[in-house]
Design brief:
Order of helices and strands: EHEEHEEEHEEEHHEH
CATH topology of the largest domain: Alpha-Beta Plaits
CATH superfamily of the largest domain: Pseudouridine synthase I, catalytic domain, C-terminal subdomain
Distance between the termini: 39 Å
Number of strands: 10
Strand content: 25-35%
CATH class of the largest domain: Alpha Beta
Length: about 270
Amino acid sequence: MRLRIDFSYDGANYSGWAKQPGLHTVQGTLDVALATILRMDTIQSTVAGRTDAGVHATGQTAHIDVDVSVKPERLTRQLNSFLANESIHVHRVAVAPPGFDARYSPIFRRYEYRVSDAVGNRDPRTRHFTLWIDDHLDIDLMNQAATSILGLHDWTTYCKPRPRATRVRELQIFRWRREIDGTLVAEVQADAFCHNMVRNLVGMCIAVGRGKLTVSDAVRLREERTRTSAFIVIPPHGLTLVEVGYPADDEVGDRAELSRTRREPV
């Protein structure tokens, strides 16, 4: 039986999602809880988006395969009881439809990055998930830069290279808004992201908002397809995975197969 698990976490106290020897991770914590409750020797969960150390999630999804009888609603309650002293909350456990794969079935992942600049009111309660910047950022220029790079492209400039990993992704949404308290929020959505892509994209826009890069530099740098020092990779704590989108249940298997196919940029 394959189970789908929808959950959230505060990433401040975790060394990222993936299990690492001797480190406190989200996957390690969740898998121990699952194995203990289900009385299995080991559990290996597969997640929709492998977040880095310090990154948060309000809409993360994973799947596990089990060979024991499971009542999803009961398991949801048991997990939240077991994880009561952790910064993880399980929203729902459900039996996954045929072909479902948390990693390969999504049609999009959506992140938000929060920035408090010189215009925003500094609320110390949000400091663990908001980047504080002393400059006044020009949101209009940042939106122009963000919009200019949408589409299916090679994102080598904006990614940390990983062996055998494609850097071709479809950037579907990239826009900025200023909330009522003055906080800037970037909404970034793609079919998938390569390593550090969101933090690089936001870092580029912040450089544009500061006047250190022009709007046209966004596309120019992308097309150069090489790592650059023109902008910095911003800290992880302002980043949150807010939603993973999946197709209809009868389409998740086909979507998973399509996602495994390496694509070329337009």
